[in-house]
Structure formats: C-alpha cells, structure tokens
Amino acid sequence: MELSRDLLSAATIAVRDCMGTRPTETVLIVTDAPLRTIGYALREAAERLGNEVFLVEMLPRKTNGEDPPRPIAELMRQVDVVMCPTLMSLTHCNARREATAAGARVSTLPGVTEEVMIRCMNADYQKIAERTRGLCVLLERARTVRVTAPAGTDVVMPIAGRKVLASTGLIRDKGQFGNLPTGEAYLAPVEGESRGVVVVDGSMAGVGLVREPIRIEIEGGLATRITGGVEATKLNQLLEPHGQAGRTVAEFGIGTNDRAILTGVILEDEKVMGTIHIAFGDNQSMGGSVRVASHLDGLVTRPTVWLDETKIMEDGKLLVG
Length: 321
Prior knowledge:
alpha+beta; Thermophilic metalloprotease-like; 2 domains; 8 helices
C-alpha cells in the first residue's frame, strides 16, 4: 500500500512523540477495513523506528465501546504499546481497560481520516498539555458545571469528587490511555443528578455534522427526550438498543486542540478549542459506574461555562489559561 509522506510523518509523531515508544518495545496496531490505511501507516512508522510491531485487522464493531474479538483483547494485554485506528471507538471497552490495567499504553483513533491525522498530529502537544492540565485543576476544585449556549443549551452537572482526566496526547507512562489526535479535559458527572437541556449544534457521534440542532432534555442524569430533525431521529435509533444506561449523562469535556476544526469526525470535533461536549452511555472508563456498549458524544458550539460561580468560558472563548 502506497502511503503519503505527510501521513507517514503524522504517524511517526504519533508513535515516537505521543506514545514515547522505545525501540525495545512491542507495538500492536488494531484496525479494521475502513481505517486500514491509517493502520498501515502506524505500522510502517513503528517499523522504521525499530520496533517489533504486529498488525491485526478485525471486522468493524457495531457500536462505540463494543469489545474486539477475545484473541485480540488477549494480545492487547501482552504488548507495551497498543494503537487502535478503528471505525468505532475502543476507548470505552473492557479490552482497553484490561490492557491498561496490565500496563500497556493505549491510544484509540476512532474514525480518524488521513486529513485529520495530518492536520491534528502536527499540533504543539506540549502547549495542549499545559492548557488541558490547567483546566483539569479548575475542574477538580469545582462542585458543579453549568453550560449555556446560543442554540438553547442550559444544563447543570454536579461533578464533586469525580476524577478529572487530561487527554494531552502524551501517552508515555505505563497504563496510560487516550485518543489520538487529542486535546480535552473531561470527567464523568455524578450519575443521576444532571438536569437541563443540551442542544447539540456542532456534531454528534454516529450521526456526523448536525444541520438541524438536536435538543436533548435531561432529568435525573438521563436523556429523557430527544427532538429535532433527521439527526435527532438517528440519535434515538442509536440509543434505543441500549436502554436507560445508554442515556446516562456520561461525560463533560472541554476541547483544547487549537489545530482541530469541525469536520463531522467526532474524534476531531470534540477536541476543537472553544467547544464543549457532553456524552451519553458508558462512563466506567472515567471512574463512573455505568457499563454499556455505547458512548456517544455531542458537540455544543459557542458555550459559556461556569464552574460553581466562576465563568471560565464565554461564547466559546476561554477566559483562563
């Protein structure tokens, strides 16, 4: 397979700089047919860096959070570095959790395209890390998050005592995991307590760019009513197989990657600086208690964000850091 120079350069940054891969380490690439090109680029980069590298291809998963076949899950626990360019996300699956518990460093690249790789892997990840960690410090001190936005979002999410995670793109320590490309500070709000309205006007995982905003009413930490156009219908269809657990307010995140742009690929969209995202479904990977084979992020543009009484973002502009 012929690979572009720019894609190989982006893949090298991912393997060498973001994962901190050393020549003595073993690297596993888990991919599927839709993202095969990205998988091959990562394998080529790892080989050129002197690593023993394995590439396995599976059938695309049906949902974000669905586990890979058991033999692949077992292999993930036996290597030093795992990179997963797959159509559906493996971030919130048991196989990823087991691999990091065993000490592997894992990056997931769900739905990534060549264009996204080239654009976003060339960001300054040291600056992204500083920005992200600064937001994490503020989130850790807060008890509640409130978000409003011009499209109609007005939601309150209790977060006291929740673990805050920094997706910095620097996945260099044993047992770490995160997306690539990346840039977000995120956490799991307290189950059963979020309330208000979220209007997704950017993009929605599994749906793509939103033409008619999706209005999601939240009561008792659950998405109780979803209305709008064809995008809202699609979201209801995606959630229906997973019952109440799939409607759990699972994540609140703030994008911190200044190179990311809104494209309809949620991997990139949720990292766009000046946006926030709220996800529904599995939150176990973030320290929550809900395990379900679904995790769907919705992007809100031009948000104003308060942590308790302190405004940290206004109309999409960060007021801190």
